[in-house]
Amino acid sequence: MYISHFLFFFLLKPDTAAVLKRTVEALMERGAIVRNLENLGERSLPYKISKHKERHRRGGYFLIDLEGPPSIVSTMMDHLGRDIDVIRRAFIKHPVSKTEECSGIIPVNYEDKLIAKKK
C-alpha cells in the first residue's frame, strides 16, 4: 500500500457530481481507500487538449488523496481514458515521511535548568 494523489480534470458540465462519483467508486472497487477529495476549481488548461474529437481550453481540476495498491494505477488510467468526461488524468506517488527519534540525545529538563539559574 502507498499513498498517492490522483489529479484529473474534466469537462465542466452540470453532471460534475456524477463524474466524481463514478471515479471514486471505480477507485474503491479496485481496493483504494479515498482519504480526501479536493476541488481545485475551474481553470484554463496548461495547453489546448484534444480529447474525444474535441478541443478543450478550460476544465475543472480535482485532487483525490488515496491509499491503495500500485496495481490500480494502470487499470484506472485505462478506465478513465475511456470516460468521455475526463480530459486528463495523472497519479502522483506521495511518499510517507516517517519521523524517527534519535536515540543518542537525552531530553533536557528545562525546569531544572531554570531553577539552577535562579540560585
UniProtKB/TrEMBL annotation:
What GO MF annotations does this protein's record show? small ribosomal subunit rRNA binding; structural constituent of ribosome
User: GO biological process: any one?
Assistant: translation
- Which SUPFAM superfamilies does this chain map to? Ribosomal protein S6
Transmembrane ranges, per UniProt, are none
Show the GO cellular component annotation of the record: mitochondrial small ribosomal subunit
> Does the keyword field hold Nucleotide-binding?
no
> How far does the signal peptide extend, from start to end residue?
1-18
Q: Tell me which InterPro entries the record gives.
A: Ribosomal_bS6, Ribosomal_bS6_sf, Transl_elong_EF1B/ribsomal_bS6
UniProt keyword list: Ribonucleoprotein, Ribosomal protein, Signal
Entries under Pfam families matching the protein = Ribosomal_S6
Family listed: Belongs to the bacterial ribosomal protein bS6 family.
Name of protein: Small ribosomal subunit protein bS6m
What organism is the protein native to? Spheniscus mendiculus
